[in-house]
Amino acid sequence: EKDGYAHYMLKEIHEQPRALRNTMTGRIDEAQKKVIFPTLQLTPESVQKLEKIYIVACGTAYHAGVIGKQVIERLAHIPVEVDVASEFRYRQPLFQKNTLTIVVSQSGETADTLAALREAKRNGSAVLAITNVVGSSIAREADDVITTNAGPEIAVASTKAYTSQLIGFYLLGLYLAQGKETVDQQARAEVLSALQELPDQVEAILAHADGIRQYAESIKEENQLFFLGRGLDYAVSMEGSLKLKEISYIHSEAYAAGELKHGTLALIEEGTRVIALSTQADLYEKMVSNITEVKARGAVVLGIALANNMELHRSVDEVCLIPVTNELLTPVLSVIPLQLIAYYTSVALGHDVDRPRNLAKSVTVE
Ligand code: F6R
């Protein structure tokens, strides 16, 4: 049932190209270069009225939401707040008119996310669910559903569910942009065609995973590690850090690179391992200066950048290059090496990759 893979997690990592294609299937009008969601109650007319969006989820789904926020704000110019469900449900969020609440959940059964959905509905907000499980509680109770169609995810550590949730957000962001008429048609068409190239690009990364396996071997004795990034790279860092903690039990922290000097820099010493994501052109110089700061304190840095970056290798100890894509879409590619680092580190340490200690696949209690 693992199709020859040693673990479900590795199988699911490799299923991502197919999962991403399935998330897109039936949702793109090729002739018009538009996103279509024929079954949504959220019609282009109702999109025009939207003034505010909440995104609510837990864990990895929350990390997808952090990216979703930036995607929707940039494409559709609607202000978005993103919350962890267990916080949202008790913090008495203000629901204005014309607010949409988006809940994200692989299983569709996470107790806090379901409670947040109910709280939103009680306050008169329309609710759209991005979920992988058709017929789940969250899918049944939401007004609208975008199914990710990634197929069953068995490993506790979420991989293909996350990247397919990202695709869900890109499609939704484009759909909202069409309704709001924010970004011009040509710019939208560019994002859309780059989106359609992602599955092949993920495949290309997976075909060259050997270097990552060696890297994992080199960090397995560490007891702490830092992930740094800005903007979308910071959001991906959060997911990379969670994945590593979850299955390798190595403590790590994701840090917004600009926040380093406000405390965390004190933890960097000779030999501290840092993974620095740097895929955003407008933030590149800033990242290089943060990398220089940690290097000056002895950090050993792996940089993750786009393949057209000819410079980063001069500032770091090792680089991992990912295929070039539209700037908004880099998370789908940059997270793949991070998933593999977590996986191979867990394997190198002899842990139970698919069933890490203390964790359950579906958290149906508070
Ligand atoms: C991490 C992980 C968890 C889940 C979280 C939400 O790898 O799997 O953080 O993402 O428990 O689960 P769903 O998406 O089912 O609501």
UniProtKB/TrEMBL annotation:
Catalytic residues per the record? 361 (for fru-6p isomerization activity)
Keywords from the named record = Aminotransferase, Cytoplasm, Glutamine amidotransferase, Repeat, Transferase
**Assembly, per entry:** Homodimer.
Name a single GO cellular component: cytosol
The terms under GO molecular function for this entry are:
carbohydrate derivative binding; glutamine-fructose-6-phosphate transaminase (isomerizing) activity
Instruction: Please cite one Gene Ontology biological process associated with this protein.
Output: UDP-N-acetylglucosamine metabolic process
What role does it play?
Catalyzes the first step in hexosamine metabolism, converting fructose-6P into glucosamine-6P using glutamine as a nitrogen source.
Please state what the protein is called: Glutamine--fructose-6-phosphate aminotransferase [isomerizing]
